[in-house]
Design goal:
The protein is mainly β. The chain has a single domain, classed as Protein of unknown function DUF192 (Jelly Rolls), CATH 2.60.120.1140. The protein is 9% helix and 44% strand. The chain is built from two helices and ten strands. The protein has helices at 22-27, 102-106, and strands at residues 3-5, 10-13, 15-19, 39-49, 53-54, 62-67, 73-80, 85-86, 92-99, 114-116. Strands 3-4-9-6-7 form a five-stranded mixed sheet. Strand 1 and strand 2 (10-13) form a beta hairpin. The protein is globular, with a radius of gyration of 13 Å.
Length: 117
């Protein structure tokens, strides 16, 4: 599965894990040793809301890309470090967790449109 930025045609991630159960959403990236360029974790939420994340037991910084119901970027948080908490300002329907630096590398901006293939 791949994540493609439809706005610019770039493939942002080629190894995508979808957190689609209670356990995978609960565990997220906790206890992993690394998170390489080209990987992503996607959380699909039942309804739009402000979904907070924590970085407890996550050993590396990540970028967060929050998407609305039509997969457009509504909020971005770059380089959130381990042992931090983040509460978004915008409601979202899904979240992409990406290795730190991915947002800058691929030029991801508010309003970009994404697809999971």
């Amino acid at each position: 599965m791949k994540i493609v930025d439809k706005t610019n045609g770039k493939i942002v991630a080629e190894e995508v894990k979808v957190a689609d159960s209670f356990w995978t959403k609960f565990r997220g990236l906790m206890f992993r040793k690394n998170f390489k360029c080209g990987e992503a974790m996607v959380f699909d939420f039942k309804k739009p809301a402000r979904y907070s994340i924590h970085m407890f037991f996550v050993r590396f910084p990540i970028d967060l890309v929050y998407l609305d119901g039509s997969s457009k970027v509504v909020e971005i948080r770059e380089g959130i470090r381990p042992w931090r908490f983040y509460r978004p300002k915008s409601k979202s329907s899904s979240l992409m967790e990406l290795p730190a630096g991915t947002v800058e590398k691929f030029g991801i901006k508010i309003g970009h449109d994404f697809v999971l293939r």
